[in-house]
Amino acid sequence: MAPKRPTGAVAFPKAVEHLAPAKVDPAQLYAALDLGTNSCRMLIAQPKGSQFHVVDSFSKSVQLGAGLEKSGRLSRSSISRTIQALKVCRKKLEKHEVKHMRLVATEACRRARNSRDFLRAVRREVGIELEIIKPEEEARLAVISCAPLVSTKTEQLLVVDIGGGSTELVWIDLSSVPPIERPRAIMRLHRGFQNADSPFPHAKVVDWISVPLGVATLKDQFNDVDDDSARFALMSWLFEEKLASFAPYANDACREGFQIIGTSGTVTTVAASHLGLRRYDRNKVDGLRMTSEQIDKVIRNYLSLGPEGRRRDPRIGRDRQDLIMSGSAILQALLRIWPTDRLSVADRGLREGLLYAQMSVDGVLEDTVP
């Protein structure tokens, strides 16, 4: 399946706070649910200033896309697991009396032949409506959620969102934007990737791509390869091949002004491993900048541990040991071909983008971009 490259949701504050106030007015609550190929995740939040407080959350590995690469369909067992998780989400929405919500599905539902049947089952058994969003909107929301992490020194930016079934990459030129305005220029991309008519200094989207390979689908491509190191090398090679037409400047001159921001469970897990965290701490991971050497060291350690060692590593866990290697293969391929030796870690993504978008449209965020 070839990468998709269509052409060009919606405004955005500076950061996310995860400490909810004691009493919350239900009328002020917003929810965002992201049903991906591997995980079902939801946030319920209340706007505060230019940020938001997370009131409740949910995250579970449902493996909705298990076997999709081979069959082209969502399996009965995957659908059953996902519906049970969605019922938990519905109870949380009812408990908090949430009125403003956006509940979306991504690559697995975009690709599955029986996705309409699945959506009908969710409507009937869970009582919620899921919306399948297009790759461009998924990419835009991920980019906007990362805006607070954009350095004022950045002239060329690559935002990478490594999902379960696909990987979105957006290449942005900020060289014509005054340095102090660069994070805000990223926020303005809620207008779309084609924003040349904006009266404000604007970020130019040079190129973007949605590669139909994420941590789950890339792993499934090489299930028949027994050797751990060989499988990793093949995964990294295949992903790099998919980026043949999405190449950076050949010139190394922009290295100093180039920034990569990575958002995914892979990136945050690698960061937690680098920091040696016994227990995951978002405050230490979100915004961390890692060198390519530090990332390579973590990945080499994953390989030396082998499958069983990765299962026993509390920072990875039994259910992610295979997925962390396919995600690491994607990460390694990106760092090989893009002219930078650092990566900024983002513990944020589609859910945060969905929340920012809803709140901005309703005008409940302060200091947002018009």
Mean pLDDT over all positions: 86
Strand content: 15-25%
**Major sheet summary line:** 6 strands, mixed
| Overall radius of gyration | 20 Å
Kindly identify the CATH topology of the largest domain. Answer: Nucleotidyltransferase, domain 5
Describe what this molecule looks like in 3D.
The protein has 370 residues and is of the alpha/beta class. It folds into 2 domains: 121 residues, Nucleotidyltransferase, domain 5; 209 residues, Exopolyphosphatase. Domain 2 (Nucleotidyltransferase, domain 5, 2-Layer Sandwich). The chain is built from 13 helices and 11 strands. A 6-stranded mixed beta sheet has the order 8-7-6-9-11-10, sandwiched between helices. β6 and β7 form a beta hairpin. α8 packs across α12, α9 crosses α11 and α9 packs across α12. The longest helix has 21 residues. The chain is globular, with a radius of gyration of 20 Å. The chain starts with 29 loop residues before the first strand and ends in a 9-residue tail after the last helix. About 4% of the residues have low confidence.
